[in-house]
Structure formats: C-alpha cells, structure tokens
Amino acid sequence: MIGDYCNNDKRLTNAQKSNVDGVLAQLVAKAPLDGFATASSGSGANGVYGLVQCRQDVSTEDCSTCTQDAAKEIQKRCPDQVDARIWYDYCFLRYDTDNFIGKLDAGYGIIYYNVENITGDVESFKKKERDLMNRVEKQAIALPMSRGLGKDKTDFSPFVTIYGLAQCTRDLSKLSCARCLAIAIGNFPKYCQNSKGCQVNYSSCRARYETYPFFFPLDPKHKALAAKGSTLRVLLYP
User: Fold this and answer.
1) Any idea what the CATH number is for the domain that residue 75 is in?
2) For each of the chain's 238 residues, which pLDDT tens digit applies?
3) Chief subcellular site (predicted)?
4) Residue 222: DSSP 8-state
C-alpha cells in the first residue's frame, strides 16, 4: 500500500454507513470489468459517491484483487470518516459525501523518492527523465483512447534505463488531466531532486519514474532487476 487519507473533518454517521457499504460493493463488482468505475448510494446529506481506478497496464485479476483489498483496508484505516482515500501500486479508491466525480483534486498528495542519488552525468539524466515524462504525460492526456495512462522508457546508458508512467482518473477532462499531471510532475525537482526514482500520487492523477521496470509488460532487458534503495515518504496537504 502506498498510503491513505482520512478526513477527520467529515465524520461518518450511521445513516451514511450503509451508503458507504453500498458504494464499496458496487466498486468492487464493477472495477474488474473495465479497470475503472464510479458509484453512488443515497441522496442529500447522506449520499455517498465513490470511484476506483486500476492502473491500466495491470491484469483483470490484479485489478480485482487490488480493489477488494482497498475496499476492506479503507474501512479499517478510516472507520469514522466519510471522506476517505487509499492508494496502492495497482489501484486507487475513494469515497465522499461531496460529488467529486469529474473534478480535479490535487490537494492532498503522497510522494515517495529513492534515497539513492543519480550517479554519472546528473544533468543528462535529468534531461532524459524530463523528456520521458513529457512523452508519457501527453499519452495520458489523450483521453479517452489512452484510458488515462501513459508509459514509456528511455536508455540513459547501456546499463541504465529510465521508466516513466503517468495516469489520470478517467472521469477527468483532457484539460483537468493535463493540469493535474503538470502539478504532479512539477513536484519532481522540488522533492526528488537528484533521486534515482520518484512518484507523486494525488486523488486525480499519479506520476512516477524509476531506474527499474515497474509497469507491465515488464521490460525483458531488465526483468530481473529488483527495486533498489530505500524510499522516503512526503505528505502534501492543501
């Protein structure tokens, strides 16, 4: 699990609890069909809205497993909150009493960066990484054909490949997707600087680069590589 967010300013009432359960049941059932789903239950102050999105490169089975795990874990971690979100590598799930569907949300964020720094020509690495992220950002923005996902790789040296991924939730417009990814990728220099890897996760989008393969299909050239180095987490608040 990457992380979670439980809004303590929005407490769950008994009347809302059954609607949360209803939304989660819908999301778990619908997500594997297309890798993305929205749901709602109830109305007025007790109405609850939900969204789940799997990373579009993962299998249907992995999507289903991730969604089920997320639905169970979010209720454990946010038992008394009705604005709750949870991030995994393979999926993201949230619910709220406010109808957030189609709205850009780059407020609360979770950043991980590799504590190992780039070796060799740092400026050349950064340029390669920027060019790569520009490409995957453009791919992701090409909704609906892209299904919100962009992924690619580039060789930094004969022995080092940089892998990049960008994804928006599929309820967003192209403009909102572009804005969200611009914010996410814009955080790379600020928080990750010379790091070998970085990921920024918002409720509406995510962006990531690494020097090992992490998206599917795995690169056969470096398939045996494992994630190296420790990571640190940074939490961003609105």
Assistant:
1) 3.30.430.20
2) 999 999 999 999 999 999 999 999 999 999 999 999 999 999 999 999 999 999 999 999 999 999 999 999 999 999 999 999 999 999 999 999 999 999 999 999 999 999 999 998 999 999 999 999 999 999 999 988 899 999 999 999 999 999 999 999 999 999 999 999 999 999 999 999 999 999 999 999 999 999 999 999 987 766 555 555 578 888 876 6
3) secreted
4) G
50 with 147, same domain?
A: no
Co-location of 113 and 229 in the same domain:
yes
> What distance in Å separates the CA atoms of residue 138 and residue 72, rounded to the nearest whole number?
34
**Inside any domain, residue 103:** no
Terminal Cα-to-Cα distance of the chain (whole angstroms): 22
CB contact at 8 A, 198 and 112:
yes
Question: Which pair of structure tokens corresponds to residue 138?
Answer: 């453009």
- The alpha helices in 35-173, defined as continuous H runs, are 60-77, 122-141
Q: How far apart are CA 230 and CA 137, in angstroms?
A: 26
Has residue 102 been placed in a domain? no
